[in-house]
Amino acid sequence: MERVEQHASFGGRQEVWRHESRTLGCTMKVGIYLPPAALRGERCPVVYWLSGLTCTEQNFITKAGAQQHAAQHGLIVVVPDTSPRGDGVADDPSYDLGQGAGFYLNATQAPWAAHFRMEDYVVHELSAWVEQHFPTNARRSIFGHSMGGHGALTLALRHPGRYASVSAFSPIVAPSQVPWGRKAFAAYLGEDQGAWAAHDAVSLIATASERLPLLVDQGEADEFLATQLKPELLQAACDAVGHPLTLRMHPGHDHSYYFIASFIGEHLAFHADALKARA
Ligand SMILES: N[C@@H](CCC(=O)N[C@@H](CS)C(=O)NCC(=O)O)C(=O)O
Question: All domains of the chain, ordered by start, with CATH?
């Protein structure tokens, strides 16, 4: 492993690391924000951020403005890339499949299955690596944007007990029912839609064994709202079983990091409260 960037930030340090992933079979870059408390040697909880289509670790660490809030709450923020990377890794010319579009699941279909194992990477290998090398206290929360919002919701629902809290900006809530998700699921999981529900937040809500409250923020001027995101499907699924959901619609906000930056402080405060309650 090798540190490839470090920048002083709000009394802490924004770092980028490169490490070998056995799960993905390639080298991965990861953004790690260490708050002042971590630099003083205190053990801090970790919040995992999952980005959307086309992103690397750079989008969030340079545009979300998370560092000042993570510093204030004493949170380590870990930002993985959105897929395996490299010349030996399968890819597709479109922006919504292949590298930059891993969808936070383990692919079962050729040519993707060899490297596209983002669920195992994020849930198991990355957290073990983080907890081995950084001053953590083994408490975790998870959040993300768009494809990464889908990732945060589904990984929290699929791994009850692992995360203290979950939230999302503009998430894909029902990938089985929208073009981005249907294209990716057909490629990664196969045409048999029986396998899709296990990676679809709206489907998973019905049978969730842990009713972890969901915080979701969505811009009303988001260009993908009606075609790809459909938060009303998540609202209906939560209403049907009494799953706690706070869905906040924001007039004027689009799908960009300007939206994320506007509410990132509230999301980190939400996670900090939940992580403290677990202490
Ligand atoms: N029109 C966009 C679609 C992809 C997109 O909007 N990606 C979102 C996540 S779904 C994003 O975070 N983009 C990078 C950024 O805004 O920094 C593109 O082709 O790049």
Answer: 2-277 (3.40.50.1820)
